[in-house]
From TrEMBL, chain A:
Membrane topology: Multi-pass membrane protein
Predominant cellular place of this UniProt entry's protein: membrane
InterPro entries the UniProt entry points to: ABC3_permease_C, MacB_PCD, Macrolide_Exporter_MacB
Domain MacB-like periplasmic core: 20-217
Organism for this UniProt entry: Dyella tabacisoli
Gene Ontology molecular function terms on file: transmembrane transporter activity
One matching Pfam family: FtsX
Ranges of residues in domain ABC3 transporter permease C-terminal: 314-430
UniProt GO cellular component terms: plasma membrane
Protein name per UniProt: ABC transporter permease
Organism placement in taxonomy: Bacteria, Pseudomonadati, Pseudomonadota, Gammaproteobacteria, Lysobacterales
Automatic annotation (TrEMBL), chain B:
Domain MacB-like periplasmic core as annotated: residue spans: 64-249
Protein family membership: Belongs to the ABC-4 integral membrane protein family.
Organism of derivation: Dyella tabacisoli
Main location: membrane
Protein's recorded name: ABC transporter permease
Topology versus the membrane: Multi-pass membrane protein
Single GO cellular component term: plasma membrane
Keywords from the named record: Cell membrane, Membrane, Transmembrane, Transmembrane helix
Transmembrane segments: 15-38, 284-310, 338-359, 371-393
Any single Pfam family the record assigns to this protein: FtsX
A GO term for molecular function: transmembrane transporter activity
Annotated ABC3 transporter permease C-terminal domain residues: 291-399
Location within or outside the cell: Cell membrane
C-alpha cells in the first residue's frame, strides 16, 4: 500500500506545479545551505585522532606568572628549559616535544631549484604516540635521540618529489646544507586540525614533509620556523643561547598516559616541578599547571573557527524558515484537494488511510527536495572555497554519509512539516464536500 | 479600508495566518542580524592602513644554510633594488602591515609600572616611513643617524651601554591618544619591553599592525630606529609599474646572491586581500543567505496568497455581486497582507534582539543598532506587498457571476 501511496504522491507532484516547485525549491535550498555548512563544521570540529585522543595530553607550565600570562592560563607552549625538564624526568609512558622547522631542501638529481619544506624537530616517540603510518622504514629510536643523530623521516610527497617514490630508506637528503640519513618514509599523514601544533596556527595548513631529531636541531642551533612568544617577559635575549635559556615559549610538549590515574599522577608531577622552580626562585608565583587531553586542548585553542559555527547557525535558521514555508505550502496543496478527500472518505477510507496517503506524498516532496538539495550541496561544496579559507574548504567533501544525511534530513523534515497539513486534510468532512459538488 | 472584517476573517484561518506571521518574523530576525553582521565585516574590510596601498611590493628571501654578514648583504640588495627604474624607495624591514606575523612589545610610560600600558607593534627598518608612505601629523620622522644595527643594539642592551641603543621613536596618533589622552606626545618618554627608554620625536596619522587581535588596538604601532637584515624588502613604486618592478627586483636579487629561496613576492594589495579573506567570504555568505531568505519568504506569501484566493473565490464573487469594486477586493488582500506583515515584524523585532543577544554572548558582537529595525520593517512590508500583488490581482479579476454558480 505504501508503494501505491508513494506513486500517488509522485503523480500529485505534477498537480499545482507552481506550489510543488516552490516547496521543492524551498526544501532544497534550506537543506543544501545546512549541509554545506555542516560539512565544513564537521571537518573542523572532528576528533583528529579518535583512537588515542583520550590518552594524549598537552602539559602546560606557567612560566610568565599572573602579570603576563593570558587571563590566568599558562602559555600555549613551553620554554626550552621546561621542555627539557619534562623530557629528562621521563614520567610518562611516552613523551615528545616539538617545534616547527622550515628547511631548504636540495634536490637530489638534475637541476631543480632548492625549495623550502616545513616539518618538525621532535623525539622518536612522536611517531608511535601519534600513530604515524609508514610507507617505508620507521621512525628513529631513543638511541638516535641520545646520539643526536643526523637522521630524518620524510613524507610520501617529499619522497615522491626527491626519489620518485622509490624506497629511500638509508639514502641521504640535504637539508639546510646538512646531510641526513633517511630512516623512514611516512604514508600520507595529515590530521586535521593538526592538534599537536596548534601553537603555530598550523591547524589547517599543508601536510608537514620532514621530521628530524630535536636533539640534532638543538646541536645545529636551529631557530624555530614557527611562532616564538616572549609575552611581557621581554625580547629574545642575545644570540641563540640567550634565547633558549630565556623565558620565551616556542616548544609544544606532548605526553601519552594510559589511565586517569596516570594523568592525575602526571599533573602532580607538573605541580611538583613548578613548585621546585618556585623554590629555586625562577617563579615568584604559586604553581599554575594544566594537563589537557586532545579534545580539551582543541577546545581551549578554539580549533573550530567562529566563522564555521556562525555560518552553520545562520544556515540552520534559514532551514527553519524554509520549513515554515513548506508547512504553509503543503497546507495549501492539501486543502485544494478537499473534494477528493471527501470522496475517498465517503467511499470508506479511514482517517488513518488519509494520514498515510498524505504523509507518503509529503515524503515524495521531501525526496524531490532532497535530490535537488543534493545537487545544490554538490555545487555548494565546489563553491565552499569562496566562503571559507581554501585550506578549510578543502576538508569538506561530499561522501556517502553526507549524501544519505542530506536525503534523510530533507525527507524527515518535510514529513515532520506535513503533520499539521495532513491532520487538517484528515479532518475534512465528507458530507460537506459531497454536498457542494 | 475597514480592518475589522479582515481581522474576523483571519480569526477563521488562524493557522495559515500564523504561518505567514511566523515566516515574516523569523525572516525579519535573521535578516536584521545578517545585515548587521555584514556591515560589521564591511567596516573591518575597509580598515585604514596608513600606507601607500597601491604602491607597495614585498619580497621576502631566506638564506640557505647558516647566515653570514647579513647587514653587508642587505646593503648590497638595497643598492641593487634602488637601481631599478621606477623604484621610488626601498627598505629592509621586519614586517609589513596586514602581513600576519608580527613583532610586538609591551609599552610602559613609567619605568616603575608593574604592567604594560599597552602592547604595540614595533616596526624596524631604515627608510620605512618613506617607503610605506606614512603621514606625519607632528614632530619629525626618524633620521639616518637615529638608526642602530640590531646586533649592536642587542649587545649594547646586555652590556648596559646606552651609546649603542636606539633613543627615539615615532608612534601613531591612536597610541599617543591612548598613552597621554589630550596631551602633546612629542618629547615624552616611553619604555619598551625590558625597560628600553625611547623619546617620542614624531606622531604619524595611521599605521596598522600586521596581525589584529582586537580592532580597537589595530593602530597601536611604532617605528623604532633599528636596522634589520631579515630578508624582508618593502619596495615602493608607481601603481602601474608594480608588475614590471617586481619581476626586475627578483631578477636583481637573484643576481646579487643566487643561493637563496624566495619565500614571498607580492603586491601589498594581495596582502590586504588575503588578510580580509575570511571577512569577505562571510559577507558573501550572509548576503547570499539574506537574498535567498527574502526570495523564499516572498514565494511563500505568493503560494499561500494564491491558496487563499482560490479558497475564497465564492466569497469574492458574492462581494463583487453586492457592489464591491475590483479596487475594493485588491485593497482587501493588500491590507490583509499589511496587517500580517506588521504583526510578523513586531514579533520579528523582539526575535531579532534575542538573536542579537545570543550573538553578543557567543561571538562578541556589539548590540544591534536600533536603526536596523525600521529598515528591516520597510523591506519586509515592501516584499509582502510585492508578493501579494499577483494573488490579489487574480482575486480582483474574479467575476461577480461566480456568486450565482453552484450555491
Amino acid at each position: 500500500m505504501f508503494v501505491h501511496y508513494a506513486q500517488l504522491g509522485l503523480l500529485s507532484l505534477r498537480r499545482n506545479p507552481l506550489l510543488t516547485a516552490l516547496m521543492i525549491m524551498s526544501i532544497a535550498f534550506g537543506v543544501a545551505a545546512s549541509m554545506v555548512t555542516y560539512a565544513v563544521f564537521r571537518a573542523v570540529s572532528g576528533d583528529p585522532i579518535p583512537q588515542k585522543s583520550a590518552h594524549l595530553f598537552a602539559p602546560q607550565v606557567d612560566n610568565w606568572g599572573p602579570q603576563y600570562n593570558r587571563k590566568g592560563e599558562p602559555a600555549s607552549a613551553m620554554t626550552y628549559t621546561d621542555a627539557m625538564a619534562l623530557m629528562h624526568a621521563h614520567k610518562a609512558k611516552r613523551q615528545t616535544v616539538l617545534f616547527q622547522v622550515l628547511m631548504s631542501v636540495m634536490p637530489t638529481q638534475g637541476s631543480g631549484l632548492p625549495f623550502k619544506s616545513a616539518g618538525y624537530a621532535t623525539y622518536g616517540d612522536f611517531f608511535s604516540m601519534f600513530d604515524v603510518p609508514f610507507q617505508y622504514g620507521q621512525g628513529w629510536n631513543a638511541q638516535d635521540d641520545d646520539n643526536r643523530a643526523a637522521v630524518a623521516v620524510i613524507s610520501r610527497d617529499l619522497n615522491q618529489k626527491l626519489f620518485g617514490g622509490a624506497n629511500s630508506v638509508g639514502r641521504e637528503i640535504e637539508l639546510e646544507e646538512q646531510t641526513y640519513r633517511i630512516v623512514g618514509v611516512t604514508e600520507h599523514w595529515d590530521p586535521k586540525p593538526r592538534f599537536f601544533d596548534m601553537f603555530n596556527g598550523n591547524a589547517y595548513t599543508d601536510a608537514s614533509e620532514v621530521y628530524i631529531p630535536f636533539t640534532h636541531a638543538i646541536d645545529l642551533k636551529m631557530d624555530t620556523g614557527g611562532n616564538n612568544s616572549c609575552s611581557g617577559v621581554g625580547n629574545r635575549g642575545v644570540g641563540w643561547d640567550g634565547w633558549i635559556r630565556g623565558e620565551c615559549v616556542w616548544i609544544s610538549p606532548w605526553v601519552e598516559l594510559d589511565s586517569k590515574a596516570d594523568a592525575d599522577e602526571y599533573l602532580q608531577f607538573l605541580h611538583a616541578y613548578a613548585q621546585e622552580q618556585q623554590r629555586a626562585g625562577r617563579f615568584s608565583w604559586a604553581p599554575n599547571v594544566r594537563l589537557r587531553d586532545v579534545n580539551a586542548w582543541l577546545e581551549f585553542q578554539h580549533a573550530v573557527p567562529p566563522e564555521s559555527r556562525l555560518s552553520l547557525t545562520v544556515a540552520l535558521g534559514f532551514f527553519v524558515i524554509c520549513l515554515v514555508n513548506t508547512i504553509g505550502l503543503l497546507l495549501a496543496k492539501f486543502m485544494r484537494r478537499a473534494p477528493e478527500i471527501g470522496i475517498r472518505r465517503a467511499l470508506g477510507a479511514s482517517r488513518a488511510d488519509i494520514y498515510r496517503q498524505f504523509l507518503a506524498e509529503a515524503g515524495m516532496v521531501g525526496l524531490a527536495g532532497g535530490v535537488l538539495g543534493l545537487f545544490l550541496t554538490g555545487l555548494g561544496m565546489a563553491g565552499a572555497g569562496m566562503v571559507f579559507e581554501p585550506q578549510i574548504a578543502r576538508l569538506a567533501h561530499l561522501d556517502m554519509s553526507l549524501v544519505a544525511l542530506t536525503l534523510l534530513v530533507a525527507i524527515g523534515a518535510t514529513v515532520l512539516a506535513a503533520f499539521y497539513p495532513t491532520w487538517r486534510a484528515a479532518q475534512v468532512q465528507p458530507a460537506w464536500q459531497l454536498k457542494s459538488n | 479600508m475597514d480592518i475589522l472584517p479582515i481581522l474576523s476573517t483571519l480569526r477563521r484561518h488562524k493557522i495559515t495566518a500564523l504561518l505567514v506571521i511566523l515566516e515574516i518574523a523569523l525572516t525579519c530576525a535573521i535578516v536584521c542580524n545578517a545585515v548587521f553582521l555584514v556591515s560589521q565585516r564591511l567596516e573591518r574590510i575597509h580598515m585604514v592602513s596608513g600606507v601607500a596601498e597601491h604602491e607597495l611590493l614585498e619580497v621576502e628571501l631566506a638564506n640557505i644554510g647558516p647566515k653570514a654578514d647579513d647587514s653587508a648583504r642587505t646593503a648590497e640588495d638595497l643598492a641593487a633594488l634602488r637601481q631599478i627604474p621606477g623604484v621610488t624607495s626601498v627598505a629592509s624591514v621586519n614586517q609589513l602591515p596586514f602581513a600576519n606575523s608580527s613583532n610586538n612589545s609591551g609599552i610602559k610610560i613609567d619605568r616603575k609600572q608593574n604592567k604594560s600600558s599597552l602592547n604595540a607593534t614595533t616596526y624596524y627598518g631604515e627608510n620605512i616611513a618613506d617607503t610605506f608612505g606614512l603621514q606625519l601629523v607632528a614632530g619629525r620622522f626618524l633620521k639616518a643617524d637615529d638608526y642602530v644595527d640590531i646586533d649592536t643594539a642587542k649587545k649594547a642592551f646586555v652590556a648596559g651601554d646606552a651609546k649603542g641603543l636606539p633613543k627615539n621613536t615615532v608612534i601613531t596618533l591612536a597610541m599617543a591618544e591612548r598613552l597621554w589622552p589630550g596631551q602633546q606626545a612629542l618629547g615624552k618618554q616611553i619604555y619598551m619591553g625590558n625597560d628600553l627608554p625611547l623619546t617620542v620625536v614624531g606622531v604619524i596619522k595611521n599605521l596598522v599592525r600586521p596581525s589584529i587581535w582586537d580592532d580597537a588596538t589595530a593602530q597601536y604601532s611604532m617605528l623604532v630606529p633599528i636596522q634589520v637584515s631579515d630578508g624582508v624588502y618593502a619596495i615602493r613604486t608607481a601603481p602601474q609599474e608594480r608588475d614590471r618592478v617586481l619581476k626586475a627586483a627578483l631578477e636583481k636579487l637573484k643576481q646579487a646572491n643566487p643561493h637563496r629561496v624566495v619565500l614571498q613576492k607580492r603586491t601589498w594589495d594581495e596582502i590586504r586581500e588575503k588578510f580580509f579573506q575570511n571577512d569577505r567570504a562571510m559577507t558573501g555568505l550572509l548576503v547570499g543567505v539574506c537574498v535567498a531568505l527574502l526570495v523564499v519568504t516572498a514565494l511563500g506569501i505568493v503560494g499561500l496568497g494564491s491558496f487563499w484566493v482560490a479558497q475564497r473565490r465564492r466569497q469574492i464573487g458574492v462581494r463583487r455581486a453586492l457592489g464591491a469594486t475590483r479596487g475594493n477586493i485588491l485593497h482587501y488582500f493588500q491590507t490583509e497582507n499589511f496587517l500580517l506583515a506588521t504583526i510578523g515584524i513586531v514579533l520579528g523585532m523582539a526575535l531579532a534582539y534575542g538573536v542579537n543577544l545570543f550573538l553578543m554572548v557567543h561571538y562578541e558582537l556589539p548590540r544591534l543598532p536600533v536603526m536596523y529595525l525600521p529598515l528591516g520593517a520597510v523591506v519586509l512590508w515592501l516584499i509582502g506587498q510585492v508578493a501579494v500583488l499577483g494573488p490579489a490581482m487574480r482575486a480582483a479579476a474574479v467575476p461577480p457571476v461566480v456568486a450565482t454558480r453552484s450555491v
